[in-house]
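Changelog-adjacent note: as of this version, every example in the card shows the full chain rather than a window. The one below runs 494 residues end to end.
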Amino acid sequence: MASPPSPASSTSSTSSRRSLDQNRPLSLEDLVNHFVASKRSLNSQTILWRANEIVNQARELLEENAILSAKNTSIRNIVDEQVDALVAVRRGIEVVEADVQVEFKGLLHDLDTSYTGLQSTLAVLRDTPIEAVLQPPGTSQKHLFDFIDNTTVTNLKDSLRDCIDRYNEAHVSLEDSNDAFDTALENLHSSIENVPRTPVTASTPSPIPSLYHDLEGHAKEAAQAFQSLVSHYDFCVSALLHTEGGAAAATQATGDEPVPSGDAHAAPPEPISEEERQEMLAVLVKDAAEMEDVVTEIRERGSEMSFLLSQIDSHITHLRNEDSALSSILRMLAQIAAEVKDHIGTSRSFHAHWLEDTRPTLLSGIEEWENQREFYERFDLAYAELLVEISARRRRHDKAKRKAEEAQKELDRLHAEDERAREQFTLTQGDFLPLDIWPGLKDPPRQYEVRAVPWIHDEDEEGQEEHLETAVQSIPQLGRNVVERALTRVKRRM
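Full-length structure tokens:
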């Protein structure tokens, strides 16, 4: 019965060792003391009962450990997959929003550029006066801007502003949904980080199997140690039964008749020789010296088993706490998953609103601004070309008038020359020619007149003359600088 020495020892064992050291024969009193001490050592059986309870309890915890470890690992894998899926959904919503925002800002920039260009063109129209000679007398000064309908510009501007307001409202709804989504994900990540993670060793996923193995080893060793105590007790009983008066002395000392551990009633011992008896006593004395150490070993193993059970129980507590926290995470995931449908619906609604309303409206607005700017630029250019055309018409009119005057003078000269020639012919030959030889002999020469052809209108003859005069006066005389500025604008925009 080898075991570490213990500071505690009984009086009987001390006396036995002292007696042995003095090499004196073992007395009946010493034998009874050994018997009493061995019987007392059997009280350590309660430690074995507790050890058995510990092993059974540890076995149940070992099974629970396997279940909880597998369950927690599975739930963590599920949680990781679900979190990845939720993050992917959030990232997808973010990508949709970012793409729309980038295109929206680009279209707004193009819209502002188009509108600024239109306003610049309108500013030119506001600053371009109508030449006074083109307006009826007494008319107040007008500009090109006064001849356009600005209602279209105003209505389009209001329509685009309403479209942008609708987009901003849809975007605010999306941002509110995204903020709620982000808050839910942040709470989820925080809760996952706070889930207690059961400590494990580097070599094994759980220390419990190893602890349980150690428990079984301690229980086995304690049982074997206790069996040695039982054997020592049986030796003491046998020695008493083979010693005269031993049974009575033991009964007087303990109140119980010494009976071997395996027998219900004491049986008469088989006779042995004195030599065999001395050998028995020698073994008894040797075992008695080790008995206290064996009891100490059983107690230490019982304490170690209680400590190992506390470690197992602590590890299971961690697993249970982890299981409870992971169950809460699963409930959070279920709630977030239900809310995700609304977040996705909001994102889809925002994207559909963009494709069906905002984007086509902005593109149409940009095109309309460009068309209006081009139209009003053409209007300004047309006015510049009108001034050039008026100047050209005036030049052509003046040239035609001069040609007409020159032709009239030539016709008048030819008419006068014809009159003089006819008069001279009449003076020379008139007395010799009868008048009826040619009825046109005495006719005056035909006179031709160069005049402007009147416009064809539904007016009477008197009205035609008046209108003719007005038509001639309708080609104003523009200043040279006015025409030059107009030519410069025309050339610049060609």
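Structural remarks: The first helix runs from residue 11 to 21.
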